[in-house]
Amino acid sequence: MIWLDTLAQGILLGGLYALFAAGLSLVFGIMRLVNLAHGDLIVLGAYVILVMVSVTGLNPFLAATLALPVMFGFGMLLQTHLFNRVLGEDILPPLLVTFGLSVVLQNVLLETFSADSQKLSMGPVEAVGVPVGPVTLGLVPLATLGSAVAVIAALNLLFYRTKLGRAFRATSDDATTVQLMGIYPARIFSVATGIALMVATLAALYLGARANFDPTIGPARLLYAFEAVIIGGLGSLWGTLAGGLVIGVAQATGAAIRPEWQILAGHAAFVAVLLFRPRGLFPRAND
Amino acid sequence: MDRKTQLTILAAAAAVALLAAVPVIGSRALVQDLFGVLTLLVLALNWNMLAGFSGLVSVGQQAFVGIGAYVMFACVILLGMDPLAGVLVGGLAAMALAVPMAAFAFRLNGAYFAIGTWVAADIVRLVTSQWQALGGGTGTSLPKGTTKEMIFVQPVKDLLGGSSAAAADAVTYWVALALAVAMLGISYGFLRSRMGLALQAVRDNVEAARSVGIDPLRLKAMVFLLTAFGTGLAGALIFIQITRVTPEAAFSVIDWTAFVIFVTVIGGIGTLPGPILGVAVFYALERLLADYGTAYLILLGLIGMGAMLFARRGLWGWIADRTGFDPLPLSHRPPAPPSFTDLSDPVTQRS
Known about the structure:
Chain A contains 10 helices and 2 strands; from the N terminus they run ααααββαααααα. Chain A has 287 residues and is mostly helical. In chain A, strands 1-2 form a two-stranded antiparallel sheet. In chain A, helix 2 packs parallel to helix 4. The relative contact order of chain A is 0.21. Chain B has a single domain, classed as ABC transporter involved in vitamin B12 uptake, BtuC, CATH 1.10.3470. The interface between A and B is large, with 41 and 41 residues.
């Protein structure tokens, strides 16, 4: 039964990683931007929720709804004033600007909130377990996985069923030609990054609920998110969910064998997938 | 060789001679500071070669620094070798590590290469943390007195007077200076060579480069291996002076990659003098802001981002554009076109 429990824990953890990865996948899919600050933006989201909690005294779930518009606005600003200026043929400027942003964010958070680890306390709901067949699963981790599935489904609906989604896809295909149809790519990109940061805020909520966080943990989250995106296959949102689950299960299995093997097992799964299926499990885009 | 190049070489020689004299005339604190600056310069020259000239934006250089340091420690602690010999072995180990790392990261296109190298470096860090003979996750120190018994330390002590520790600092400093000068010379020679020209051709236009018979992958793989060697040497040398190694310190992405990236970008990425200017700015900022902790890192990051937004070729590019001054020209003059009268093709004969 132990291995069944490990598998279940891994899948739930994978839900969190899928949430980390969804924003990265979205931004890459639309504008081919690899955002090295994504992990730190998730951590920023967690601190924004923390501030909302301490200012309003609300439960983190409700505080997160206040944080969402803040992070959406921040994403729009970042894209409009920073990322849009460096997008182009040359991959160097966007990489270096987002890497610089990562380091700056990390250290601003360190200066503001110190290196002490924090946690978003969910109250009594944290201790609630739900018996599912032979194993008992935490309600909050279940909600994490449920949210991940819901977010991916919602993003897919947005992409393939709405006018905005059509604009996203068209801009992704050819950012020059869409301008003839009255679409302004810079604005589309800004909305996309805003949405990505809303997803990141949701990820931050469950990150803070699950474990302690501090300003330095961003880069590791970026790596997990990136692994999930690559394992799933570039450009496929459901693939990203699958990639998150693969990393989650691999980490849980590694940790079950030896606690210090958790992260290493996740990386090993990533390397294995890359060696045998270089384009991921469900490739869609051509790059 | 034209006059300008001669003058540049003369000025450079004078600067190197002045730097070489620092342990004799300067304080020990200055020697230690400049040791940090010189090793950072070596790291920056290597990273610039990767990102600036080969289009390989690696965020995993800490893997080579760390493995260089750890293998040097292994040579000293487990094999009883001299630390400086350990530095060489550390560099070779880094180059050996670069082979599987390239095999893995080169599968990732463009921007994803960056995170791929980062993941690879994290794997190396986690595996090294399992190396129990070198302290596992908590790390280990060099045996007491190791650096004092290092080769060259006794003669230097006799020469300079002072303590063995100061003499050891002087020795590592001179090695760092030699490494920096060698790296600069090799970079220049390499970039001026056929292969260097091919590299810049690949960076500017892959398709056109291919069409004249250049194999971009082979060329990039070679640069990746060679820069891993240089980075590993620098890493091992740095940790002789620190004398203590932990996985967190040896594989720190901030210390061995972020600083290096900022220094190169501020000075001028893709230019040869860029990293030199970059470390100068870095050193000045470090002195000015020493008391403000992370503020200094924030400022460095902001300046780096500013450079990418407003001056893509950094401080050096800005200066070169305004003055036309280029002491180490990397461009080749095209061969003079044949004059029309020499041509015996029918078109010109008719006219």
